[in-house]
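Lecture 7 notes: from sequence to structure.

We start with a single chain of 224 residues. Read the sequence below before looking at the structure.
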Amino acid sequence: MDAKVKTAKKVEIKKPDCELFLPGEVGAVLELTVKRKDGSVREHRILKSKSYVRQFLELLLVQMNMVSEAHPMSIRDTGNNIREVAFSSFTFGCNAPIGDPVYGLVVGTATTAPTIDDHALWAQIAHGTGVGEIQYGDVAFGLPTATGTESHFTVTRDFSNASGATITVNEIALYVRALGSQPGNTYNRDSIWVFMTIRDVIAGGIDVLNGETLTVNYRQQATV
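Now the structure, written as tokens:
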């Protein structure tokens, strides 16, 4: 009797982060991991983020140019409002706590293609355990790491599904905070605005079944 030959399963081989970028390129790596209730990995993807939006560079300019509160820069926030922003230690803050979907890494269901002028997710998923809701963990950070060819640090957040049904995540963004100011006056310390710096749309979406957890890692990276 001839021995049965098993068909080899096709395995997707992930490229190292450094192979996703050209020499001299600065960008972000988006890593998505879905885990079952028992902690085993059901799905894992590593993608090159392609969707920094204009608020990222505007906030970077504010910091690098030390824009003063006397002459702040106008930037559009996640509520579609124009806010006046000046240099401060608050800028780019995204260390959101558990249950806070206002800033940090956030997720949504829309599939609209990203544009440079996007200021918010098109359809953000709310925090909670109700229908269509997902639980937002706290935002954590990996220490800066460098090799011979690249340097990076990671922003990470868990999203747990206890809604009773599958939730498909199609869009992912990084929301950061900045301290508002009043033109010609002083910092408005009662006004901490939120701005979107990056938005990616995931081809085909990524399903998070009831009881599963999606871990999102954004690795901010520079390559030589």
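Confidence is low (pLDDT under 50) at residues 1-16. Keep this in mind for problem set 3.
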